[in-house]
Prior knowledge:
- This protein is α/β, with parallel strands linked by helices.
- It folds into two domains: 7-169 and 368-383, 3-Layer(aba) Sandwich (Rossmann fold); 177-365, 3-Layer(aba) Sandwich (Rossmann fold).
- It has 14 helices and 13 strands.
- The strands form two sheets. It has a seven-stranded parallel β-sheet with strand order 3-2-1-4-5-6-7, with helices on both faces. It has a six-stranded parallel β-sheet with strand order 10-9-8-11-12-13, with helices on both faces.
Amino acid sequence: MPLSGRTILQVIPHLSAGGAERTTIEVAEALKAAGAKALVATVGGRLEGELTRAGAEIIRIDGLATKNPIHIYSNASVLSKIIARRNVDLIHARSRAPAWSALWAARRMKRPFVTTYHGVYNARSAPKRLYNSVMARGDIVIANSEFTAAHVRKEHPQAADRIVTIPRGVDIGKFSPDAILPARRTALQKAWQLPAENAGAIILLPARMTGWKGHREAIAAAARLKSAKDQPWRMIFAGDHQGRDGYLQELAQLISQHGLDDRIAIVGHCDDMPAAFALADIVIAPSNEPEAFGRVAAEAGTLGVPVIGSSIGAQGEIIVDGETGFVVPPMNPVALADAMGDLLARGREGRKLMGDAAQIRIRQKFTTAALQQATLAVYDRLMGRPS
Length: 387
């Protein structure tokens, strides 16, 4: 195997929940399978155990997440020593502040340097644009979607010939209908206080509780659906509120004002998202800001559930409008209600046909295995270059 015996250092500030953290774990797992050594420099977080089980060694650097220029510079020295001591062959940075430290260390030690654009960074000033630019300074710049790649080309045209698009992937084994035992679905039904029978179609909005994820628009759309007596449904908001108590109160008031208390439930964080998607009949992701990838659409699609997503960002790369789900304009409750009404009117069999098409598309284009293979190919390509 080309990477056997090599040592790769990934650099990420935290190990909390998120796309960058999840991809770090997936790449570490692939490195181990390839016979390489996977090191991860980080402050740490709740995914440490999962990362260790994937085969990585965690190197804790307490100040790695700071934006303080003094600490960023000193962290470059810390990383340089790690590179020398552990004979690191390549450094892969996944966030801006530690990426500056990693860039300086990689250049000092003459090692290949890779960055991944996991999101779209806004820049309203020259200093912010300079700060963001580190993510476009990799020898290879990985973008997690074509939408993200286009953003990088626009903001950092000098990096255009170094961009490689590697979409985020879904763990097909984890998000497989066969892997979700009935007991997991039953446990979630009880936790969400859903009737065991005749609950109607379950419409799931899985996202952290923040305004740009479209909860207000979903409530307004649900109010338009309320009159559809022949198509019973319930809507679930599943996601961590992250201390946004005022936003939760606002949503609860909107639900009551529209007379939807018996239709919409806010259930909090969900630890079993595969079971949540398996329990859902329709998944909505009505974000009113661009999604850099669209994990919800990919994961739900893997389980054969049609998804309604926003037309901005990368969700349209995953959802084929009218075939695997629907793409609607952001902040448009009328369009969202129409799309939900369409899926409700199709009935279980009609939704299954669309969900089956989504499942085929995700398995062909958006798998963890494909992400792992493509990322390791980038490493192999760079390490094959003369220094």
